[in-house]
Amino acid sequence: MHPTRVIGLMSGTSVDGIDTALVEISGRDLDLKVELIAGETYPYPPQLREQILELGAGAAVSMAELATIDDAISRTFAEAAQFIQVGHQAATLIGSHGQTVYHRPRQEAGELGYSLQLGRGSLIAHLTGITTVSNFRTADIAVSGHGAPLVPRVDAYLLGDSRKERCIQNIGGISNVTYLPAVSDNWLCQIRGWDTGPGNSLLDLAVQHFTNGAKTYDENGDWAASGTPCYPLLEKWLSHEYFHLPPPKSTGRELFGVAYLHQCLEDAQGYQFSTWPADFLATITELTAVSIVHNYDTFLPRRPHQVLLCGGGSRNIYLKRRLELLLGKVPVSTTDQLGISACFKEAIAFAVLAYWRSVGIPGNLPSVTGASQEVLLGEIHGHYR
Ligand SMILES: Nc1ncnc2c1ncn2[C@@H]1O[C@H](COP(=O)(O)OP(=O)(O)OP(=O)(O)O)[C@@H](O)[C@H]1O
Ligand SMILES: CC(=O)N[C@H]1[C@@H]2OC[C@@H](O2)[C@@H](O)[C@@H]1O[C@H](C)C(=O)O
């Protein structure tokens, strides 16, 4: 069978731009293979990014404004899909995650969650002339799942090992883990995955706060590395109920966003710092690292043999070093080491999920999202040219 050429489009909770992957997919599950032909992040126009961040922070907008933003996101995603194909053979399918602007996970048994991604698949299909799968989270939510994380099934087939237990740790705006036991017969139902808490979201917001918007993130973690974490303050933050909630669980900027950062800044007033704001940034970075390891120690059967990082946070050298220290003997590297781009893994995953949808393979893992069953993820939008 010929490989299928698919584009994966993803903009995550950092809202830094549209991660775009042009891939060739062959095989279906254990024989699944993905070759990254091209990967690029296309930044959002600054004004659109601001509007998305405001929406995510709970700003009240009219339906007319919402429609305008939805249109602009759809068009920006379609452009990303067009740009990535320049100089390459065209794709026949697009998987577009869209832009999450609201995520309300289910709280109690019997209740359903809600998750809203903007960027309409129908418009992307029409503008690109390529069949587009979008709205990946709603089917899992309809069968009582969290609708997130959805990448773990793709992680399983691309990064599972017959001997080693692995944690695939994505550090985007929010952090999420996929725990992969060694491949065995009833392996899929033993896989676990959930959002561990903040990734870079609070650190990014803090850097913007302290630089009056001149910087958007702490490059390589250099600023935080020049400070020292304040452990009593960290202890206080770690008492947040999310870190102690058993999986399945998912979260977003609704919990770990602007309001939470302001709370952290207020909390900090009761503590002594020798280097401000570097100590604060070091403490925020430590919150990400310690909460990840706390999640492993509390909710996994044991620590894995290996941790593979991905997402933009895998480029934060200081954060990676803190994780290495906290994890002791467990080696920490990135998914690049196994041939899967750490920066484009999420975009690659939505290409695979679209491909699975097109051939009728379920994309969710009930052991991860808490859904009552496996379901086909995403809505297929044809095109008319
Ligand atoms: N060189 C770097 N040094 C430090 N941090 C970096 C670097 N490059 C990227 N980042 C961080 O990674 C973030 C973007 O990561 P990524 O694109 O994985 O997030 P996302 O996909 O938007 O989020 P999510 O996975 O929660 O949906 C940036 O906002 C920044 O904080
Ligand atoms: C609602 C939503 O967009 N959630 C994202 C977010 O970003 C990271 C984490 O929170 C993750 O659970 C999820 O995305 C990835 C791609 C997932 O579904 O696997």
Keywords:
binds adenosine-5'-triphosphate; binds the ligand CC(=O)N[C@H]1[C@@H]2OC[C@@H](O2)[C@@H](O)[C@@H]1O[C@H](C)C(=O)O; alpha/beta; 385 residues; 7-stranded mixed sheet; single chain; 5-stranded mixed sheet; 14 helices
SSE map:
Layout (H helix, E strand, L loop, with lengths): L3 E8 L6 E9 L6 E10 L3 H11 L6 H23 L7 E12 L9 E5 L2 H8 L3 E3 L3 H5 L9 H8 L6 E6 L2 E7 L11 E7 L2 H10 L11 H4 L5 H8 L2 H4 L13 H11 L9 H22 L6 E5 L6 H11 L4 E3 L10 H15 L6 H4 L9 E3 L4
The structure holds adenosine-5'-triphosphate and the ligand CC(=O)N[C@H]1[C@@H]2OC[C@@H](O2)[C@@H](O)[C@@H]1O[C@H](C)C(=O)O.
Adenosine-5'-triphosphate (ATP) binds next to loops.
**Cofactors, ions, other ligands:** adenosine-5'-triphosphate, the ligand CC(=O)N[C@H]1[C@@H]2OC[C@@H](O2)[C@@H](O)[C@@H]1O[C@H](C)C(=O)O
| Helix content bin | 25-40%
- Structural class, by secondary structure, is alpha/beta
Overall shape: globular
Distance between the termini: 26 Å
Mean pLDDT: 97
- Total helices: the number is 14
Provide structural commentary.
The protein is an alpha/beta fold and 385 residues long. The chain has helices at residues 46-56, 63-85, 121-128, 138-142, 152-159, 201-210, 222-225, 231-238, 241-244, 258-268, 278-299, 317-327, 345-359, 366-369, and strands spanning 4-11, 18-26, 33-42, 93-104, 114-118, 132-134, 166-171, 174-180, 192-198, 306-310, 332-334, 379-381. It is globular and about 65 Å long. Residues 12-14, 16, 19, 170, 172-174, 199-200, 204, 217-221, 311-313, 315-316, 346 line the site of adenosine-5'-triphosphate (ATP).
